Amino acid sequence: MLMLTLVSLVACTHDNRPQPIRLGKEDCAGCGMTIEVPRFACEFITDKGKCFKFDDLSCLFHYMNAKNLSDSTVEKIYVADYEHPDSLIDIKQAGLVLGQDIKSPMNGGVAAFRNRAHAQKFAVKTRSILLDSWERLKIQHAEH
User: For the purposes of burial, counting CB atoms within 10 Å of the CB of 139, is it exposed (0-12), middle (13-18) or buried (19 or more)?
Assistant: First the structure.
């Protein structure tokens, strides 16, 4: 009985850690373009453990809206650290900078930073705004 419980537990768990994005080899789940710019790559992992990858946060946002995916369905969202694009960070921990002068693949204009002080400096430099959360970014996108 214990063995059956352990097997069931293992079968029901999934890995919600960030999955590597293979630049130039994977397509954006939103627009279908090949993901090539590491600074803006992002992904989400569902409550079922499925990973969807995107070339820009705007593609991720529009995909979630088009598919009516709730925050409970999307377990984790990871974004590339603008300064260290090989590192994906939890969007809830990221400093998010939104601005017209931030040139991302789909013109979403969002850069994510692990270091909030660096995000603030980048926001000033690019005449952009530092958002306080992913929730605020969703509101900004919904308004435009």
Answer: exposed
